[in-house]
Amino acid sequence: MTRFGPFLKASDTGQLEFDGVVVTDLADRFGTPCFVLSENTIRANFRRIRDAFQNVYPAEVIVCAGMKGNWGLAARRVMVEEGGGGDAFGLGELTVAMLAGSDPRKIVMNGANKSRETIEAAIDMGVLNQVDNIDELRLVGEVAADLGRTARISLRIRLPLSKLAEVNYVDARYPEGISPSYWKRTFKFGLEPETYVKAVEIAKTMPGVSLEGMHYHGGIPRRAGFYREETEDMVEQIAMIKEKTGWSPEYLNVGGGFVTERYGADMPPPMEDYAHGICDAIVATCKKHGMPVPVLMLEPGRYCWESAGIWITRVDARKEDHTLANKTWVYVDGNTNEMRDPFDPRCSVHHVVVANDVNRKGAEVVDVCGQTCNAGDILAKHRELPPLRIGDTLAFLDMGAYNESFANQSNVIPRSATVMVSNGRASVVRRRETVADVLSRESVPTWLMARPIARAAE
Amino acid sequence: MTRFGPFLKASDTGQLEFDGVVVTDLADRFGTPCFVLSENTIRANFRRIRDAFQNVYPAEVIVCAGMKGNWGLAARRVMVEEGGGGDAFGLGELTVAMLAGSDPRKIVMNGANKSRETIEAAIDMGVLNQVDNIDELRLVGEVAADLGRTARISLRIRLPLSKLAEVNYVDARYPEGISPSYWKRTFKFGLEPETYVKAVEIAKTMPGVSLEGMHYHGGIPRRAGFYREETEDMVEQIAMIKEKTGWSPEYLNVGGGFVTERYGADMPPPMEDYAHGICDAIVATCKKHGMPVPVLMLEPGRYCWESAGIWITRVDARKEDHTLANKTWVYVDGNTNEMRDPFDPRCSVHHVVVANDVNRKGAEVVDVCGQTCNAGDILAKHRELPPLRIGDTLAFLDMGAYNESFANQSNVIPRSATVMVSNGRASVVRRRETVADVLSRESVPTWLMARPIARAAE
Questions:
Q1: B39-305, which class in CATH?
Q2: Which end of chain B is more exposed for a tag (fewer CB within 10 A), N or C?
Q3: What is the DSSP track for B371-413?
C-alpha cells in the first residue's frame, strides 16, 4: 500500500491533500468520480528509476515509461519534461507520444502484428521499431524502401531460461503456479534464439534497415525474482549471436515488470536492487565475452504511474440488512468499469481513505459498491473502514496505472474526468465523458427507421 | 456452440453467410475487425422466449431484453418492433431505450444507487422504477412530489432461498463452488423480506408513488438449475407480504439468467423448460394462497443477443517456432479488448470459422493472437483449426452479448465498427472508432504547455 508521503498527506484539519491540493475541493470543483494525477509523484517515480539504474550503470540509461499503464497526454508531457522516453504500442500510443513532444530516440515502437500504416509512422517519426518476427522484418524493409527512408529497428527475443525450467512461481493470477521458463518460451512475442540469428543475418543485408537493438521484456521471471538469472541468460544469448553474426546491440531494452508494493507483493525488491542485479549481470557478462556495454533501455509502466494516481468518489447511499445477510452496503457514484486493472492480482483491494476526514475514528465492515448492474461491482469487499456517511468523499489510492487505460462503458455509464494536480494547482486533463459521447457512434439502418413502431406481424 | 442454422450458414461455394450476406463481403466493404448483428436472429431469439412463456402463462408476459448485454440503438429498435421491452440500468441505457421508441410500460429502470437525475428521467418517461432500498423509495417520493407527477415503482427483493443453503454450485467462475442461497442473500441488490414489508407499508402512504411490482433477479440459483425452487420461494414471500400488508404485485419481474449453450453448459435447459418450471410455480403458488396471477416480466439478456452477433477479423501474420516452444501463433487485426465478456466462464473459447473457406480441410493447433501488448491477448488458445493463411477472414461466433458493451480501448486501440445484416442487406449501426475519438477528451495543463520541452532542472 502507498503510505502517505510528501505528495499525499493529511492536512492539520484532517483533509486529504494530494500534491498541495485538498481532495474534497477537487470533488466540489470537478465532480465525482474523478481520477487525480500528481505531477510531482510522476516526476519522483521516474527519477527513482532513472537514478537507481544510472547510478550503477557505466553507459547511458533511457527510461521508456510504458504507455499502456497510462497513455494520458498530460502524463506523457510530464515524462517528456523529465527527459524520459516511452514504450508505445500501436499507432494510437505512438501518436500520443509524439504529440506530447517526445524525443524520437527515446521512443520504442512495440507490437507483434503492426499494420503497414503503423510501420510507416514509426519510420516517419524516426523511433526504434521493435520487430517481432521475420515477416515483419521484411515488411519493415519494404516500407522503408517505399518511403526512401531508413528504419531503425530492434529485434525482440524470447529466452530459453533453462535454469528456471524447474521453478514453480505462484501468484494470485496463477492459482496453480507457473514456470517462468515455460511462460517466456511460449509467450506470443519475439523470436527464439535460432531464428533470431537468421533475422540478424537478414537485417544486415537490408539496405533500408538499421539494426540497432535487442528487446527482451521480463514479465513473470522478473516478478518472480529471477532478474539476475534472466539478465545473464539474455547477455549469454547476445554473446552467442555475436559469435555467429558479428553483430551485437547498441541498445539493449530489458522491458519492464518491476513489482510495486501493491502489485502482488508485500515486500517487493526496492528499485535499487533490481538496478544492481540487472546492471551487474549485464556488465559482468559483457566483460566475460569482451563485448561493449550497450545503452540500456527500460520500460517500467506500473512503477511510474500507479502511486501517482488516486480516484475519488462520493458516498451516495447506505443499506443495512440485520435479518437475512447481516451486511452493510455503501454505495458510491463510481464503479468497477474504471477499476479493472487486469494485471493486478489484488484487483479491488485498493486502500480507501475518507478524504474529508482522514483521521475518523471507529470501524465497521462494509461492501463499497458501484452503481452498475453487476453483482461483482464491489470496489472494496468485506472491508473494515471507518463508519462511512452519505456525502463522504472516498479516495482509492494507487489507481494511476491500468485502471483508466482499461476502463469500459458498460451500462452506458460515462467515464470519469481526470485532473492533474501540482504544487497546489489543478487542471482537467481528461474531460468527463457524457452519455452523448458514449452513444456518438450509434445509428439505425434506414430500413428500420422507415417502418412505423408496432409489433411485427407474426 | 452455435450450430449453423437458418441465419448462419455456408454457401454452396463455402463462404460463410449471415442473414443472407456473405461475411467476406462485409470485411471488404466495412473493414475488420467488425461486429456483425443479424436482425432476424434477434427476432428469432426474442420470439423463442416470448412464445415459450406466453404459451404456458395465463396472464400477460412482457420480455424486457437486458440492455447491459447489448445496448446498441439498432438492436433496441428491432426489439421495439417486436413489441419487446427493456431492462435499463442507469440514465444512459434508459436514453437508448426511449430514443429507440420503446413503450414505457415495457421498460424497467434498475439500479442500486440511482441519481436524482436518473429518477427524474424515469418519472418523466413513465417507466417502472425498480427501487432498491427504503432511502431510495423516499427519494423517489420526494422527486415525484417536486415534479408533481406519480412515480410507478416496483420493489426489488432478496430471497432467503433456505432450501438451497446446503447446495454447492460449481462453475468456471467459482472454482471452489458457491451456495446459491448465500449468494442471493449477500447480493448488493434489493431488500430482505422483513425490510420489504416495511417498504410496502411506507410506499402505500406516499401520495406520489404507485406501487405496482416486485422484482427478483435470478442469477446463480437459476443458472444452477433451481428455477422452480427459487420461484416458489419468491411467491411464498409474496403471500407472506400480502398477508402482512394486503398488497400484492400487479407486475412480477423474475429477471434473467437463462443459460445459453455457450454459457458454461453443454446442455442447458431449453427455454421451454425454464418457462414451464417458472410459470407452473407461479400459478400453483398463487392458487394455493388465493392470489391473482400477476403480469410476468422477464429480463433475458444473453439469450436475446449472444447468437445474434459474430465478430470478424483478418489474419495478418503467422509465426512458427520449431526449436524453443514448438508453437504456431496466428495474428489477427482484432484483440481481446473487445472479447472480455466478464460473465462468461468460457471466455475466449468462441467457435472460430474461416469465413472465406468454411469447409477447409486439415488441422493444426495454434494460438490466435490479438495485436495488443498483453501476453493474455489470445483470442483462441491452443486451438485445433484448419490451417490458417494470411488474408483469411475469421468469424468468432456467439459474440453478440457483453463483448461490445464491455469493450475497452487499451493501447489506444480504436474499437470495431458494427454492421447490422438482414435479408441480404447490411448497414453500419456503430461506426468504427478512430484514434482521434479515443484521444478526444485529452488536454494538458497550461502550466505545462508554457514550458519549453527540456529536461527539468535536477
A1: alpha beta
A2: C
A3: SSS-TT-EEEEEEEESPP-TTPEEEE-S-SSSTTTT-B-GGGP
